[in-house]
Design goal:
By secondary structure, the protein is of the alpha+beta class. Helices cover 16% and strands 40% of the residues. The protein contains 2 helices and 9 strands. The strands form 2 sheets. The protein has a 5-stranded mixed β-barrel. Strand 7 and strand 8 (118-123) form a beta hairpin.
């Protein structure tokens, strides 16, 4: 469930801004990414969605953020969750949903980005990351998709 759904109660949630570092190829395509955080106490938030570009942050992490001119800017991870994040770009439209369904069968959740065929994967601590790697490696070797580990 995303916070943009119409029936979601956003009370206690804030958008946390994360500064992104671009590589020589201009990736990621943005300078900033915002993630939803549930405010635990003043300046401390539990991340409540899957990052598309931020590295080293997972759903469930507790972070510190400072309010600067009405925007919360990420400062540091206070307590990491045991979740991991991978990101996948699928080369064929018709392969996106079957892969997302397969990841769901393993116990992962996924979130589509605004970029066609690109999605983020949340891997809970209860899911074998080696099984996820095996699945993704097989598809990468078959030239069906490419993936990156963003927060392991």
């Amino acid at each position: 469930m995303t916070k943009t759904d119409q029936n979601v109660d956003l009370s206690g949630y804030q958008k946390i801004l994360f500064r992104l570092q671009r590589d020589a190829d201009g990736y990621p395509p943005n300078d900033w990414e915002t993630l939803w955080g549930k405010e635990l106490k003043s300046g401390f938030f539990q991340i409540d969605n899957i990052p598309f570009y931020v590295r080293g942050i997972s759903d469930g992490d507790i972070v510190a953020a400072t309010n600067q001119q009405g925007e919360y800017l990420f400062q540091r991870v206070v307590q990491p969750s045991s979740n991991s994040v991978m990101r996948v770009i699928v080369y064929e439209d018709d392969a996106v949903q079957p892969l997302r369904d397969r990841l769901k069968e393993f116990g992962c959740s996924t979130e589509l980005s605004n970029i066609q065929r690109f999605f983020a994967v949340d891997i809970p601590a209860t899911v074998s990351i080696s099984k996820i790697r095996t699945l993704l490696d097989e598809g990468e070797q078959a030239d069906r998709w490419s993936y990156e580990e963003a927060s392991i």
